[in-house]
């Protein structure tokens, strides 16, 4: 249902919220980061009850999902009373459960074991479901954090995607989360603007990493204290130069082969890239979509994975704003195409310069011949 239903914090009152400014409504999603709604509403004689119970910690239900009001700003202009509301998905209230217990030492965990430990005994009604296969990972001194902090740790370590169905926390691997749509974003067909933000502030090409310390490390100095030490130099050093990152260490690796793999994951050796566009077509875009981006002027022809969405309310006519992953594995194709496009443009420019030089030389030669001919004619 597209209507918004508001419930008071104590669950005593529940009403359909009307007289919303639907043009101000926005559903905002960013993968593994945020999921919220925001809107403005004015007080009228038709919504007095629902308007009054709309405040911090009230629950708003939209399309079957519950959102908890975290920001409510009342505003009075003349005789008009309004509120600007921002509500986060209810899944983030898992932070109100804390796992005080600590599993000391290092241990291999499955994602089921880790999640069960993080939310077991919670009195908030949260459950979890795992969709897809995940490897076990090593975790150390697990616990003494709120459940949201632990879940964010698991998302990183297991490379999982969280998308909750109210208080049922669903964890997907990438293969089960994303779905092919066979749909296209195409320049001047269903999108007119595209923004490509490239940032090299955090780009590094060299890093030194240390593995687990030796048992008699206190008697040793320098690199000799560690069972494994590597310095990784990215091939992209040839492009971006020698840019050193701060060293990293891990107590779980004892050989150089595994440590080298670890080192490669610790630096961003390509520019951070963020791609976004405004979609003006009629087909709905969802959080799980894979689309094909075709943009002739920029030379893009590649699959893109939706990671950000800004969607208006169905009662308004706002276009969807879409963002795509800036993770290394998702953007490398676009960056490669950018490099190819730049190379092609450079080659064309070189050819133009060559032709221009040839024409200029020929023209100069013709001028010189004509001038010399005139002189000789005298």
TrEMBL record:
Transmembrane segments: none annotated. Residues 91-338 form the Tail spike domain. InterPro entries: Prophage_tail_N (IPR044051), Tail_dom (IPR010572). Residues 4-89 form the Prophage endopeptidase tail N-terminal domain. This is Minor structural protein. It comes from Listeria welshimeri. The lineage of its organism: Bacteria, Bacillati, Bacillota, Bacilli, Bacillales.
């Amino acid at each position: 249902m597209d209507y918004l239903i508001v419930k008071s914090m104590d669950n005593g009152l529940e009403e359909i919220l009307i007289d919303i400014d639907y043009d101000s409504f926005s559903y905002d999603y960013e993968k593994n980061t945020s999921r919220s709604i925001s809107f403005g509403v004015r007080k009228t004689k038709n919504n007095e009850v629902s308007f009054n119970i709309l405040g911090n910690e009230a629950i708003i239900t939209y399309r079957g999902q519950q959102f908890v009001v975290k920001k409510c700003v009342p505003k009075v202009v003349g005789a008009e009373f309004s509120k600007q509301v921002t509500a986060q998905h209810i899944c983030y209230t898992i932070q109100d459960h804390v796992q005080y217990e600590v599993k000391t030492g290092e241990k291999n965990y499955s994602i089921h074991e880790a999640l069960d430990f993080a939310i077991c005994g919670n009195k908030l009604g949260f459950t979890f479901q795992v969709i897809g296969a995940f490897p076990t990972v090593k975790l150390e001194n697990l616990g003494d954090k709120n459940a949201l902090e632990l879940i964010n740790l698991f998302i990183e370590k297991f490379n999982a995607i969280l998308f909750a169905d109210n208080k049922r926390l669903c964890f997907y691997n990438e293969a089960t989360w994303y779905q092919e749509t066979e749909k296209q974003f195409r320049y001047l067909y269903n999108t007119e603007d595209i923004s490509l933000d490239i940032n090299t502030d955090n780009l590094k090409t060299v890093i030194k990493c240390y593995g687990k310390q030796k048992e008699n490390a206190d008697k040793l100095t320098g690199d000799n204290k560690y069972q494994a030490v590597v310095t990784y130099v990215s091939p992209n050093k040839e492009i971006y130069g020698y840019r050193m990152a701060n060293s990293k260490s891990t107590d779980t690796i004892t050989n150089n082969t595994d440590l080298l793999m670890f080192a490669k994951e610790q630096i961003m050796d390509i520019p951070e890239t963020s791609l976004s566009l405004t979609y003006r077509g009629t087909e709905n875009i969802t959080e799980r979509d894979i689309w094909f981006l075709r943009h002739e002027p920029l030379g893009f022809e590649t699959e893109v994975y939706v990671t950000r969405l800004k969607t208006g309310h169905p009662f308004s006519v706002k276009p969807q704003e879409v963002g795509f992953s800036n993770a290394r594995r998702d953007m490398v194709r676009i960056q490669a195409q950018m490099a190819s496009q730049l190379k092609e443009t450079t080659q064309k420019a070189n050819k133009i310069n060559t032709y221009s030089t040839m024409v200029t030389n020929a023209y100069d030669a013709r001028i010189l011949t004509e001038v010399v001919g005139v002189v000789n004619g005298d």
